[in-house]
Design a protein that fits this description.
Length: 273
C-alpha cells in the first residue's frame, strides 16, 4: 500500500486498491528451487503413465509382456530414483522436515487403509509414501549430524551402502542386483521387520520401499545436492506445468490412481479396450 492508502484514499480508488491486493495474494512469493520442482513434476508424469499402464495390464487384461520385463523394471526404477533423490535434496530447504514427514507418512497410512479395504489383493503396506515420510522424520532429527559430514564423503558412502544393500529385501547383499552374500533366513522369519527391509514369508505389498536400502539413496540425494547448492539460486515459483505439479506432488500422488481408474473404467465401458 502507498501513503495515500494508509491515510485514507478516496472511495473511488477502492476497487483499484482491492484489485492490487488480490493480485498480490495470487502471486506466489515463496522462493523455490525450480530445478527440483521440475524434476519432481517430470517424475510425477512418468509415474502417472506407469500406473495407468499397470492398471491396463493387471486390472483390464491388456497384454504387454515387456511391462514385467527389463524395460518395465528400468522405467519403474527411474521413477522411484528421481523421487527419492529429489526428496533427499529437498531436505536442505524444508523448515519443518519432521512435521512434513509425519504428514507424508500419515498419507501412506491412509493409502494402506483404502487399498486394504477396496482391493486387498493390491494393498500397500509400506510403499513410497511410508518410506519417504519415515526418512524425512529420521533425517530431520539427525540433520545436525548430517551437516557435519562433508558432502563428497557423504555422497560416496551413502551411495556405496545403497548399492551394497539393494538386495537386502530379497535376502542378499552385493553390488546392486548382483548377489554376493546370502543373509541369514532368520532375519526374514518375523512379520515385524518388513518396514526395515526384512519382509516375512507371508508379506506382500503392491508397493514396497523399506528403509534398507532406500534410506541410503535418500541420503545420497541430500549429500549430492549439497555439492550443487553453491551454484544454484532460489527464485519465485515458475509457471511451467511440470514445476506446478512438482509443487503439489503429494496431492497429485494421493489423487492420481482413483482418477486413472475412473478414466480407464469409462474407456472400457465405451469399448476402447
Amino acid at each position: 500500500m502507498n501513503g495515500a492508502e494508509r491515510e485514507g484514499a478516496p472511495a473511488g480508488t477502492a476497487p483499484e486498491a482491492l484489485e492490487e491486493q488480490m493480485t498480490a495474494w495470487r502471486k506466489p512469493t515463496k522462493q523455490r528451487i525450480r530445478l527440483l520442482d521440475g524434476l519432481r513434476g517430470f517424475s510425477l508424469v512418468s509415474m502417472i503413465i506407469y500406473h495407468a499402464m499397470y492398471d491396463l495390464v493387471v486390472l483390464f487384461g491388456v497384454r504387454a509382456a515387456w511391462y514385467f520385463e527389463l524395460p518395465g523394471y528400468l522405467w519403474q526404477q527411474s521413477i522411484c530414483w528421481v523421487f527419492i533423490l529429489v526428496s533427499g535434496a529437498s531436505l536442505h530447504y524444508g523448515r519443518h522436515p519432521v512435521r512434513r514427514g509425519l504428514l507424508v507418512f500419515g498419507c501412506g497410512l491412509l493409502l494402506t487403509v483404502v487399498t486394504a479395504l477396496a482391493m486387498p489383493e493390491q494393498a500397500i503396506y509400506f510403499g513410497v509414501l511410508h518410506f519417504l515420510g519415515l526418512a524425512m522424520v529420521l533425517a530431520g532429527f539427525g540433520q545436525k549430524l548430517l551437516r557435519r559430514v562433508p558432502a563428497v564423503l557423504g555422497l560416496i558412502l551413502s551411495f556405496a551402502v545403497f548399492l551394497f544393500t539393494k538386495g537386502v529385501p530379497r535376502g542378499f547383499v552385493g553390488v546392486g542386483d548382483v548377489a554376493l552374500l546370502q543373509l541369514p533366513a532368520a532375519l526374514y522369519g518375523t512379520p515385524f521387520l518388513f518396514w526395515l527391509g526384512f519382509p516375512g514369508p507371508a508379506f506382500t505389498s503392491a508397493d514396497y520401499f523399506p528403509l534398507i536400502p532406500w534410506l541410503f539413496l535418500f541420503l545420497a540425494g541430500y549429500f549430492g545436492w549439497g555439492l550443487l547448492m553453491p551454484r544454484l539460486k532460489t527464485g519465485a515459483p515458475g509457471r511451467n506445468p511440470l514445476e506446478w505439479m512438482g509443487r503439489h506432488s503429494l496431492l497429485i500422488y494421493m489423487l492420481h490412481q482413483p482418477v486413472i481408474y475412473g478414466v480407464l473404467m469409462g474407456l472400457a465401458a465405451m469399448g476402447v479396450f
